[in-house]
Amino acid sequence: MPEKNKALKEKLLSTKKNGWDRISAADAKKIDAYCEAYKKFLNDGKTERLCAQQVIALAEKEGYVPYERGMALKSGDKVYVSNRGKGVMLAYLGKKTLDEGTQITAAHIDSPRLDLKPNPLYEDGELAYFKTHYYGGIRKYQWTTIPMELHGVVALADGTVKTVNIGADQGDPKLVITDLLPHLGAEQNKKPLSEAIPAETLNLLLGSRPIGDEEGGDRVKLAVMQLLNEKYGITEDDFTSAELEAVPAVEACDIGLDRTLIGAYGHDDRVCAYAALRALLDLDKTPDKTCVCVLADKEEIGSDGVTGMQSAAFDTFMEDLCDAQDIPVRVCFEKSFCLSADVTAAYDPNFADVYEKRNAAYLNYGIGLCKYTGARGKSGASDANAETVAYIRGLFGKADVLWQIAELGKVDAGGGGTVAMYMANRNITTLDAGVPVLSMHAPFETVAKLDCFETYKGMKAVYEAE
Ligand code: MN
Ligand code: MN
């Protein structure tokens, strides 16, 4: 290439590079420690309830206290509110008053899974099963023939709540959903993927040993119910008021000979939730503006409901903070910025045809910004304005955050949404950004460690903005 063109190219054209060729030696060293802690966070919080407990434990360690309405608040105070044990909102009161706005990061801590139906227990073919109803967008065929564990609560009419954990402790038995053997799969093989495993066949195998004498049916079911009664003091009717979630019984682990990737259940969106939380907890001095971290539930089913991002629980929390300074919450919202922290699709060479290479997010290229999500003609997207993207470019540039900008896939290939639009609808300037994920929504998803760490740095840059 003529020298003149080389110089011109460097000056005018984009020079995107793999993060490993750009990362500072100091940051390269920090990645592993960060990711080890993240893996523990994943393993200890495979449901939104368990994850919320982890969040609160970590926050309390750093001096966060439960907020109570009417509490006097001053700069430097650290408070949190648990939204019914399934979501957490945290605030670190800044030097500036709330009429100057807040710096928010919002992620979700629910993940796709299989919930038990309200009448789950039955016996068929002298085997006991739980009926499930899938939660979120799953590819059903991926959830068979893998070990599963069960978490959740059974709430009793007298107000007591039993915590259920089957399969997570060392030596515990696991549950499984069976699939057809290939020898008898001729008809199933002809079906499209979306139909090969009907939702009503996602039944968890629970046991096979009948109880008592040979009279009467349902003896395996009865035996399983007896075991559950011994362990939790519950009866069949108590499933009525239960939230029991079957999740993959797999621990987060390194992937790849070079250990640059992490495989786990629930990266979407705990990888961003952890980054948002850790960044807040790691702030070493009182921030300029108040920093808020929202970890919501129900994103995977549309952010509806009392623990979802559309719930007034968030507005109430913010109004309470504003009341302490006699500031209308609308004044605070219109000056606030929110980074909607959710995962994006990573380019997968095995399925290249659904990506548009020039606008895909790549592993090891850093946190992925999304100006808009949505489907078709950007339907269902908050579509951040240019100034907002520029603002983040500026912040990330100053903080040396490695970032990329991408769309979810090819136009009209599909689409997706995040909590961004619900924040933007509140008159909060909002932009999407998060970690690129391979096999998103599968029982075992893969992310790159470098991207996890850069996302953490990105969250920190948002909090530390002046
Ligand atoms: Mn998500
Ligand atoms: Mn998702």
Which strand order does the major sheet show? Answer: 1-2-3-13-4-14-20-16-18
In terms of DSSP E residues, the strand content is 15-25%
Report the CATH architecture of the largest domain.
Answer: 3-Layer(aba) Sandwich
Unreliable stretches:
none
At CATH level 3, the topology of the largest domain is: Aminopeptidase
Number of domains: 2
Q: Which overall shape is indicated by the principal axes computed on the Cα atoms?
A: globular
Tally of strands: 22
Question: What's the main sheet like?
Answer: 9 strands, mixed
- Radius of gyration in whole Å, from Cα? 24 Å
The helical percent reads: 25-40%
The CATH class assignment of the largest domain is Alpha Beta
Number of helices: 12
Class by alpha and beta content: alpha/beta
- Kindly report how far apart the N and C termini lie: 44 Å
Task: Provide a compact summary of the structure.
The protein has 466 residues and is an alpha/beta fold. The protein is 29% helix and 24% strand. The chain has two domains: 308 residues, Aminopeptidase (3-Layer(aba) Sandwich), CATH 3.40.630.10; 136 residues, Aminopeptidase i, Domain 2, CATH 2.30.250.10.
